[in-house]
Amino acid sequence: MVSAVTSRQFLRDDLPEVAFVGRSNVGKSSLINRLLGRQGLARTSRTPGRTQAVNYFLIDRRWYCVDLPGYGFAKAARQDRQRWAELMDGYFRTQGEKKLLIHLVDAKVGATPLDVEARQYFAGLGLESLVVATKIDKVPRSRRVRGLVALRQALAMPEAPEAVPFSAVSGEGVKELWTGITAFLATSREGSPETGKQ
Ligand code: GTP
Ligand code: MG
Q: Contact 156/21 with Cβ under 8 angstroms?
């Protein structure tokens, strides 16, 4: 629908939003394509920092899937990082109560200091969120449980549900992620103006 590069372009039409965020190159765009079963919908790339705008995809005319630019790619200039922070701050403060945040962390790399910082920032915004461990196909089965436990510890999420292991290559985790998204959409509809609560 829209590829927003400034906060003035953010959509404000009262539909729930599911936003995907994470380190640059973590696999956000690939996950969105796999989830929606549409290869090439969100542009993917081997070059980190490919997605630089807030991209809105309207799904079933009922909710937006939002591909956010990644954070923390090494070559980003200070100016770019500042721009990212401002864009994200503007985004997360728009339509606050109807967003589900899906925070992607690379299962093989584990949580980096920037992921931890981002998690703290998101927690401070008080948004509902889910953590997804991406590229799980790169982690041998014998190391998965240990990896997910370490991720949980690093991100300090004892109360939160465990990270959803996901692979855009094998499709693992697609079903579990849909379950989380569907539950969020059901609750956000209960709070929509059509059902009375303004
Ligand atoms: P930016 O838009 O730059 O922030 O990156 P992104 O997070 O959208 O990552 P993107 O989906 O473009 O993927 C980055 C690279 O990781 C690409 O080379 C993908 O093919 C690869 N990749 C993404 N998901 C997976 C996965 O589940 N498994 C494996 N093995 N590779 C993946
Ligand atoms: Mg991307």
A: no
